[in-house]
Amino acid sequence: MDVVTEYLHMASKLIVGLIGVIIVIRLLGKKEMAQVTLLDFVYALVLGGVIKDAMYDPTVTIPNMIFVLAIWSVLIYLFEKVTQKSGAIRHVVKGKPVTLIKEGKLLYHKMENLNLEIEELGQLLRVEGIFSLREVNYVMFENSGQLTVLKKQSEQNQPLDTPSYTLIGDGKVIGYQLEELDRDKNWLESALAGIGKQIGDIYYAEWNYEKGWHIQDYDGRMYDFDE
């Protein structure tokens, strides 16, 4: 096989691969990127591996490639149909939404099961325009990794003009937030002593210039007070 023929062969494989990608996208239905699940990612990962190997392996012919892509497309189609019909299988394979905050309280064990840290949750909430957990009544973590948020009625008409600082997350002091406030650990410990708590007792603590402290301990008790 001369060089020109080899490159034409690779180009043909690339075209076949592109057609395969389009077919898989059509099989998965119209989804926004935010709706893509882990299973969709696996589909794409395997498909990418098949196309890559076929591109650079001269022993793989175009008929071989078409056969593999056809089998993979059929498997995806059948698997999607099975998961649509069976709720139990769908929940096992694709997961289901998880409640992270209920009635204003962080559900520690749900967060732990997802390996989701307080700071990560805070980042996701800020994307939704929420800068304090005191604003939130319910939070659902969707299969796509996005959050569905229901704010407290009492907070909807009283938006904060200043951000809240997360000073304790998962029982640990978040040092850079203290530095931004120009405060130290002694100040933090003094505030906690006022409610009879130590840093290790606290799952989450935030402070805001307007509203003061919003704290939850590992037993689920909430504390809201001014400095």
From TrEMBL:
InterPro entries on file: DUF421 (IPR007353), UPF0702_alpha/beta_dom_sf (IPR023090), YetF_N (IPR048454)
GO cellular component annotations of the record: plasma membrane
Keywords, ordered alphabetically: Cell membrane, Membrane, Transmembrane, Transmembrane helix
Cellular compartments annotated: Cell membrane
Membrane topology: Multi-pass membrane protein
A Pfam family matched in the record: DUF421
YetF C-terminal domain: residues covered: 85-208
Main location: membrane
Chain ranges passing through the membrane: 12-29, 61-79
The YetF-like N-terminal transmembrane domain, residue ranges: 7-81
Record family assignment: Belongs to the UPF0702 family.
Name under which the protein is recorded: Uncharacterized membrane protein YcaP, DUF421 family
Organism of provenance: Lacicoccus qingdaonensis
